[in-house]
Amino acid sequence: MIHLAKLSANKCNLGVRSAATKINDVFTESNLTTIKTEIETNNKVNYSEDERKQEDVKLFTKCFTEMYNICRRNEWGDPFSYARSREIHMANTLNHTVAPTLSGADAFDSEGACEYKSTVSKVINATYNGISVQDTWEHQWEYMVAKKIGCYKNHYYARYDGPDIVELYKMPGELVLSYMKDRLKTKFEKENKGKDPRLGITIPKSYIITNASRII
């Protein structure tokens, strides 16, 4: 009897969660429809500059809230932490699975964990910042291969123009490491690394377009 009661309770809980999810889906869909309608209406109205700003503040607040709600429902993490919103956008564009946490992989493609980099510059590039410094170059490179770069088979680089991805590339991790090795060693061996001793390196357009596969 106790076992049956537990099963019944579990089914009830599942039913409640399922119903709650459906309600949230409808609620969010309704909110998004409302926001879309408001945007279309506001674009047609000849507001004064002050009125336009007030309306934009209201719309931004609604969009901000809905963006957060969508990400929370899908367990995508906080879209406003670092470049998380672009990572989510890239993953959805590529039909990848968004990583559930901010540390480690950004997403998962058909070959496993992958790394994303995005830029809003006029030309495509990929910047890797905040690389922890190890005690020797041998240990540094082991760290790069096993934990920082080489652990991701594929690296994806996107260039944004506003909300749109205008360029998107895929580069194998071994080619990323190949570009970094000598350049990073020079930086590692530099005696004065400044106030922030962590390492950083930017992969330029020339290397990306030569060694990566263009998707968009």
In brief, what are we looking at here?
With 216 residues, this protein is α+β, with helices and mostly antiparallel strands.
Instruction: Provide the residue-averaged pLDDT.
Output: 83
Residue windows where pLDDT falls under 50 for at least 5 positions: 1-24
Spatial separation of the terminal alpha carbons: 60 Å
Annotation field: number of helices = 6
CATH architecture of the largest domain: 3-Layer(aba) Sandwich
Largest sheet: 6 strands, mixed
Helical/strand content category: alpha+beta
Write the layout of secondary structure elements.
Elements: H1 2-44, H2 49-73, H3 84-94, E1 97-98, E2 107-109, E3 112-119, E4 126-131, H4 137-148, E5 154-161, E6 164-172, H5 173-189, E7 199-203, H6 205-211, E8 213-214
Parallel strand pairs: 3-5
Antiparallel strand pairs: 1-2, 2-3, 4-7, 5-6, 6-8
Helix pairs in contact: 1-2, 4-5
Defining key terms:
216 residues, alpha+beta, PvuII Endonuclease, Chain A, 2 domains, six-stranded mixed beta sheet, 6 helices, 8 strands, elongated, disordered N terminus
What would you note in describing this structure?
It is a single chain. The protein is of the alpha+beta class. It folds into 2 domains: 21-73; 99-214, 3-Layer(aba) Sandwich (PvuII Endonuclease, Chain A), CATH 3.40.210.10. The protein is 53% helix and 20% strand. The strands form 2 sheets. A 6-stranded mixed sheet has the order 1-2-3-5-6-8, with helices on both faces. A two-stranded antiparallel ribbon has the order 4-7. Helix 1 packs antiparallel against helix 2.
